[in-house]
User: Fold this.
Amino acid sequence: MSDAQQPSDFDATTAVDEFEPVDVFPSSEDMDLRPGADNCYKCTSCDTSCPVAEVDEDFPGPKFQGPEQWRLKRHEDVDIDDSILSCSNCMRCDDACPSSVPLSQMHNTARGEYVEEHMDKLSREYLRNRMLSNYRTMASIGSKVPRLANFVMGLGITSTLGEKIMGIPSERDVPEFATETFRQWWKKRGGSTVSNPDKQVAYFHGCYSNYNTVEVGKAMVRVFEEFGYEVLVPKQQCSGTPMFANGMLKDARREAEVNVRELGEAIDNGAEVIASCTSCSMALRQEYPELFDIEGIEELSEHTWEALEFLRVHEDLGQAILDSEVDPQAFAYHAPCHARNQGLDRQAVELFRDLEGATIEDVGESCSGISGTYGWKSEKYETSMKIGAEMFDHMEHAEGDVGMTECPTCAMQMNHGTGYEIRHPLELLEEAVV
Amino acid sequence: MAIREDVIVIGGGLAGSMAALEAADGEASVRLVTHKKSTLRHASGLIDVLGYLDESEPVSDPFAAISELPDDHPYSIAGEAAIRDGLARFDEAVGDTYQGDHTDSNALLPTFGGAIKPTARYPDAAAAGLASDSRDMLVVGFEELTEYNAGMLADHLDAADVPFDVDGVELNFPGEYANDSRVTRFAKRLDSDEDVDHDGRTMGARQALAASVEPHLGDAERVGFPAFLGDDHAADVRADLERELGVDVFEIPMGPPSFPGMRLADRLKDAVDDAGIHISAGNPVIDYEADGDEIEAVIVDSKGREVPYHAEEFILATGGLVGKGIDSDRDGTVEEPIFDCHIPHSDDRYDWFEQEAFGNQPFAHFGVRIDEGMRPLDAGGDPEFTNLRAAGGVVGGTDPVAEKSQSGISLTTAAVAGQRARNQAAKREVSQ
Assistant:
């Protein structure tokens, strides 16, 4: 039965002009998802693109989680279904939908509401999810004593306790902290070696390039300086990606306020914002304006780029690659889901296949399955590995035995499934052009 | 101006992919710009050229029938040779995964509603289901699938006077499922041959499916299933079932989600990639830059940043009303949203449709009108731009759903648009 309220004076025989279906629902007071829900014509492109629905029998899929649940919710006695926690926020449904239904926005708001209103704040699941979402806090403590932290995290007993107490799968190896964070390196280096008020970029390194894969951050700096850019590294917090995925929208907003303010200052001074992690750029570009109303948030969205994307548009990166050469090496490249949504899934492959010495192969369209914090939960570990199986298989059949991806957690999963060393496109670009 | 190609194709469905392949057959650099998943994902995967001229009998030879089409029909404008070029390019792109290229005549295939459909090319997976074949047929349905009933399908085929005996049987798909399981789940189970419990034993899903069908075989020499027999490994799934059952196995195309459509989309993407065509997927083209009537660049909305993509020649293959290449509004607007190409239509939206659901619907004719170079025409009948060509659903002037010509028009217009774009790009290269 339709939940549309029938106007009491509706008479099917009178002129159609008097019945305006767009006025049937009371108008929305906060963000209005109605137009999006109406645009769904149930073509199932989202359901057939959903990596979770493919392996998890009980997951009802994005079409339900999005437009259908939104409509069900118009009745006040209907609660958000708890299956929303099984959505990994890969956002592939956004990329699939030919009608541009804002599926991930619907999922993010539904998840936020579910966590806020229906989750026990003292439950192990909530506390674990809160901790995972606030990885930056954890990492900033661990990085104070990186060697000790790495030692403790590497202990078998830590892993067993992690599984038993927190619900963190013991199969996974906790990523090592760098002995020197990116920001410590940056400070010691004395900032950018290039001074150029006309060509400035503000680097959003995110948490992982700062605390773990510092080489990616250094590569970004050296590559951009090679092209004549002055690199700025403003104060910044977590992008919010893990918080959206866990329904911790208040935490995400707190971080977003700082990022919008600090990066906004750089933008006002003429800089463009560059991210090396495709989930960070996704958050700043799409999720911020979809979820929060903060002054300057649209400007930040419009001025944020992924690193290679920026260089492709603003510099002749293709020619720079043709003029370069690297030591012979072959890569198995995986495009992160969030890169796909920004139209970036092909750029590394199309760029590096013209690079003398490098061989690069796309390992296909499948999702890696880890989706940030998703694969770090004991109850999701099996689903995560089932989703990843196709990618592992394709990686093993690819010529290269070094993996490549832009996303730090995809990289963890690629390494976990194959044992391959994983590199970021910026590292190869640095080798080629610097 | 860092992004520059000879030819840019906008739209990644059947027409866009084929136009890109055509344009890339030579020296031209080609980029395919595609926004969302295409309508191929819910298409049947059958390639129709011309099925009906009017409501009467199906067309047996489309090539013999095109002379009866009006002068402004896309086939009449493009010509018979273009239809053949389009089909040849398609045959090359899909290789032996499709059949039907041995004859000009239409094949007749059963649909999941039990109708018989005239079509020019069909997936290898559907080949054993030809209605012109006299071998007896068993159609299998599943209780879990409410949109498909094998008994009804068999009765309909029978009522259509097919030259064979046909029975339908409804079974339970082997294994345990959630109540509202989707066909993607069944396909995945067959694709990876997951273990299921069947008849008190654990066995692979393919073997279990064959075992549950076997008692119902009777005299049937071929068995039809709804089209979800695997995804990436569909040929293996079918081969295994055929070996277990000892008869031919085929798929009957069904509604969305459509595996034949998704498999075709995958195959075309591979062909495009193998041809060295650049692909930009995930962002829409929203605008263009022109010097007079010559387009210099299209503007891609890259999540808020407007990035120009430059080229010599542009091909518009964004689809029709369903594919969003044509937009309509309650205020009576019908438009082509990127270049604002002229689309003949009434300003009164109550003129857009007939009361009779399957009548001659004016909205089905919505689309750009083209010249012999596939260039969209303005209201005065002149090309809107010198270097813009259209292919596929965005081209109007006929009702492709009623005449069953949708894929054929896509292939034909894509062939001409691709050839012209390629040749023009080469000429400019020489003159520069």
Notes: The first strand of chain B starts at residue 7 and ends at 10. The domain at 112-252 of chain B is CATH 3.40.50.1860 (Rossmann fold). Chain B has two domains: 7-98+262-431, 112-252. Chain B touches chain A through 34 residues (CB under 8 Å).
